[in-house]
């Protein structure tokens, strides 16, 4: 059945309001307009940033929305002016665009782009324009992607074409969590061979950061988490040691300083908690320690004593691990296909889109690393 140029009716998980379960609805997905592609989503991960928008950010103008931003699928049709993609292409939707024309895209210093929702909509986490309607109402596209839907429409500057042989139910994780953590270590921290690293938070992003530290040649990689059950998984990805802050009655930064003769060379905060960010900074070696804020949050100020930075530490942040999205994602898919990076080991649960609320509850209570939802058959 040829659907090109027509409105598609399909299933999607709609967040009608904050702090409420998602509802599986029949939505209408408009055809792609100029420079847009319509994608049949095959699989999607459930990421903490989806939960953040639903339960923490809760911005009133950010609903109703279709959540999900860690997906993979197949191009169904393309709009006028699209030459890079054609129906049947295997793709990963990107929450950071890469227009290749703006001052950010032209600079090797950043992966930001002036186009798309991420340019100035961090609060609402969506653009006002959308190709979705449900029950006569416009439904927002969360992070410009909305992978909790059988179909979505994206601007071509926010889509990466990937190896057609790549398994979509695995490489979907490269749409957010794995690239974010891995890149934070490799691209942003620029971890050096023989160095000592500490990674705070052993969710998917933290485990990917551990993998990135190992990939970069770190000698010691200390995984930090309050859940002792994460220790074994951390070692799978390359951690050499595991520390549980609950086992000590003194600050974790002091514990790490004692373990490392003054502090680690690199620390990565993969939780999204401002107190942990400070701990991560204070765990760094004075003189050259680099601490990277990886966990997504925009709710509270963070603080530190100026002497921490005056003494030579660097505190920096990363979005999507510093990868220029359209360039970086296909490279990471290639690295997975060549067995240079792991993906399968992140996936602890497989469910269907209809089970999305179950998957969200599982993540809320820390019962999974990544749950992958099968969205539509291909």
UniProtKB/TrEMBL annotation:
Gene3D superfamilies reported for this sequence: Medium-chain alcohol dehydrogenases, catalytic domain, NAD(P)-binding Rossmann-like Domain
InterPro entries named in the record:
ADH-like_C, ADH-like_N, ADH_Zn_CS, ER, GroES-like_sf, NAD(P)-bd_dom_sf
**Transmembrane portions of the chain:** none
Cellular-component GO terms for this entry: cytosol
Q: Tell me the Gene Ontology biological-process terms attached to this UniProt entry.
A: formaldehyde catabolic process
Instruction: Please indicate which superkingdom the organism of origin belongs to.
Output: Eukaryota
Name listed for the protein in its UniProt record? Alcohol dehydrogenase 1-like
């Amino acid at each position: 059945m040829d659907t090109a140029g027509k409105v598609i009716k399909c299933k999607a998980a709609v967040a009608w309001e904050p702090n409420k379960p998602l509802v599986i609805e029949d939505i209408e997905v408009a055809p792609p307009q100029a420079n847009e592609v319509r994608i049949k989503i095959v699989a999607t991960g459930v990421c903490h940033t989806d939960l953040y928008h639903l339960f923490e950010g809760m911005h009133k103008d950010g609903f109703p929305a279709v959540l999900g931003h860690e997906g993979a699928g197949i191009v169904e049709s393309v709009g006028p002016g699209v030459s890079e993609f054609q129906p049947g292409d295997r793709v990963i939707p990107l929450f950071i665009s890469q227009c290749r024309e703006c001052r950010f895209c032209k600079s090797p210093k950043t992966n930001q782009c002036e186009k798309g929702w991420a340019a100035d909509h961090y609060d609402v986490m969506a653009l006002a324009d959308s190709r979705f309607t449900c029950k006569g109402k416009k439904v927002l596209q969360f992070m410009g992607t909305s992978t909790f839907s059988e179909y979505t429409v994206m601007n071509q500057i926010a889509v990466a074409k990937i190896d057609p042989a790549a398994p979509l139910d695995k490489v979907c994780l490269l749409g957010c969590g794995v690239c974010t953590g891995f890149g934070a270590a490799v691209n942003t921290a620029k971890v050096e061979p023989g160095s000592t690293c500490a990674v705070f938070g052993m969710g998917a992003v933290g485990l990917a950061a551990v993998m990135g530290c190992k990939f970069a040649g770190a000698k010691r990689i200390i995984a930090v988490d309050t859940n002792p059950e994460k220790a074994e998984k951390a070692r799978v990805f390359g951690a050499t040691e595991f520390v549980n802050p609950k086992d000590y009655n003194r600050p974790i930064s002091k514990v790490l300083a004692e373990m490392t003769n003054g502090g680690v060379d690199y620390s990565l905060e993969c939780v999204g908690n401002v107190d942990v960010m400070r701990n991560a900074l204070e765990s760094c070696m004075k003189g050259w320690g680099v601490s990277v804020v990886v966990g997504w949050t925009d709710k509270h100020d963070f603080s530190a004593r100026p002497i921490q930075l005056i003494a030579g530490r660097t505190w920096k942040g990363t979005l999507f691990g510093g990868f220029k999205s359209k360039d970086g994602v296909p490279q990471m898919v290639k690295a997975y296909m060549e067995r240079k990076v792991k993906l399968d080991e992140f996936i602890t649960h497989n469910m269907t889109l209809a089970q999305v609320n179950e998957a969200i509850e599982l993540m809320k209570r820390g019962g999974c690393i990544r749950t992958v939802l099968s969205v539509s058959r291909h």
